[in-house]
């Protein structure tokens, strides 16, 4: 539903903020010092081929931050149902601009790389879900309910020696106050499309709290030949909250030229992780990518229904998988990405899996 993008901008501006951070590895700080650099580490392992055996000068990291826009919609698969639209706008600060308390608190977390510098990402987001039939005022009870989620998030992200840690806390609202109904109907009016008729049956208002953690190992396996580079990045993580609770794992394969130092284009969770952060290794680069992610799901409010109030619900599948493939292009300090996602059935009675696309653009400055 590309129809919801403009009003999603309005709805998302009422959301909160996302924080993500990126420190550089302590071990590389020693290398930077030996090369005459001082202060925070300015060298991170990586090569122009995207492999992990040669240092790359990262002094330009201090120049500024990154804006990122992610738009996900089922219009890319010519459908209009289930997870039908997602929008997220983010700003990632330059290193050293994080609050002192946040840096210290993140450094206390065990088994993570949050002990160094951090980057901060502020985000606004909204997601929308509908049943398969939006023409009826009373959708079948066997189909997923109407629902919207408006949120802001705060988190920290750290890259240490090719390992990325991402921790994010999201706060928001599920239900009519998410403005999903207004978003969809406004855009349908603008494009003279039929209004969805069943929003009166959507989930009730409920505060939404979500904690998500992902760990990725960039280029755990990597190589190059004939001017092309390839790498494999596994990931694992979990989510806790009244929106989603799950454990997940998977991997991403990249093949291209002048691979940037990144973890794939950003996505809207639940998804393969990706990242707002990226650093090009040349003025031009590209890569094809494919990835899989499997989730063991304990909670999905958009299928289970409201936590404390009576609402519509369906019986969810305990295991859900995503298969995705796409293209990313970097031109100077800008990265464009398109991802096409195939998602397995999420609830009992669903006739087939879903498809949707994700477009993202990120700007370094």
Automatic annotation (TrEMBL):
Query: Which protein, by its recorded name, is this?
Result: Lipid A deacylase LpxR family protein
Protein origin, superkingdom:
Bacteria
Q: Has the keyword Signal been applied to this entry?
A: yes
Low complexity: which segments have biased composition? 35-53
Tell me which Gene3D superfamilies the record gives: Outer membrane protein
Region: Disordered; residue ranges are 29-53
Signal peptide start-end? 1-20
